[in-house]
Amino acid sequence: MPADMAGWRLDRFLATAAHGLSRSRLQALIAEGAVSEAGRTVKDGNTRVKSGACYEIRIPAPAPAEPVAQAIPLSVIYEDDELIVIDKPAGLVVHPAAGNPDGTLVNALIAHCGDSLAGVGGVARPGIVHRLDKDTSGLLVAAKTDRAMAGLAKQFADHSTERAYHAIVWGSPRLGDGVVEGQIGRNPFDRKRMAVLRGQGKAARTRYRVVERFGDSVRPVASLIECRLETGRTHQIRVHLTHLGHPLIGDQTYGRARKPPRAKTNAEARAYTMAAAFPRQALHAWLLGFEHPASGEMLHFESAWPVDFSSLAAAFRGLNQT
Q1: Any idea which residues carry the catalytic annotation?
Q2: Which of 132, 221, 273, 309 has the fewest CB atoms within 10 Å distance of its CB?
Q3: Pairing assessment for the beta strands 283-291 and 137-143 based on DSSP bridges
Q4: Are 186 and 239 spatial neighbours (Cβ–Cβ below 8 Å)?
């Protein structure tokens, strides 16, 4: 390194010395741990360079421009030449994105459907009409033709599809049913979270109904709620129920501040221990209905609760038997 560059910020120095790489690209490489000096990783672009130091940049191989086929097992509920309905397990990401370049539902669909899926709805997310969060389980439909993509996309856009979710939440709404309305947008204090905002964001509306209350009849400790979406915003159910004062059990993003009460019985101890250890938001997309984009037939599909959700509900039902 030239002596007259000593004391420069590392990102500025590399932008001058490494031809063909922009400063923003170098800042990203530094943050990813791709830059080292004398075998030591340097992850701070503000680091001041020293005279005589030698910096190594490891540039990762470029990611493929298109998702590739991967043999990932799928639970197929229905399939024809136009579309496919999947019962998605919790933990499966729907489409490739930052942090999840592969191993997604899209990769599995490409392997399952073959060349027929190529380019349907776009190169990056072929077939994807709507999505579920990574840790939400349940029903999802994907298009296999451009005709199906257009028809399904229109139904989701005009909210004529039928979508119902089951959620296990802390506490219980005072009313047995109701509607949560509130514009949803990025939380101004945490860009990774969504929030109900005033005067900004996108209109969002969720209908809810209490299916079952667990524990004390006056102040239930938890409840099973059915939610039906009238809009489809990011994290909508999770944000709306948290706004209502009843975050989903297991939701590390929106419900992390909510702690179980102190257990007074063995049944409570079992339920609260399971809730504290529940590894995801307790949300399952159990019902999906739409008009077939080719035949016009109304289709309805239901999904049974996965084992983890069913076990959590059973543990809380134990409170009603004491």
Answers
A1: 133
A2: 273
A3: parallel
A4: no
Task: Report d(CA 64, CA 184) in Å as an integer.
Answer: 33
Q: How many helices (H) and strands (E) does the chain have?
A: 7, 14
- The one-letter amino acid code at 243 reads H
- In the numeric block, the tokens 């004529």 are attached to 160
pLDDT tier, 209 (very low <50, low <70, confident <90, very high otherwise): very high
Mean pLDDT of 28-33: 83
Residue indicated by tokens 């590399």: 14
Contact of 59 with 33, CB cutoff 8 Å: no
Three-state DSSP class for 308?
helix
pLDDT the model gives residue 246: 95
Q: Report helix, strand and coil shares of the chain as percent, to nearest 5.
A: 25, 30, 45
What is the amino acid identity at position 274? M
Question: In one letter, which amino acid is 292?
Answer: H
Q: Are 204 and 182 in contact (CB under 8 A)?
A: yes
Question: What pLDDT does residue 257 have?
Answer: 65
